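S1.2 Input.
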Amino acid sequence: MDQIRLTHLRQLEAESIHIIREVAA
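S1.3 Output.
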């Protein structure tokens, strides 16, 4: 897997976690 793609996935994951926490709060 490309390093850039891995970083992008990590960024998307962190973003989705923030959204889920806001919705759950």
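S1.4 Remarks. Residues 1-25 form one domain.
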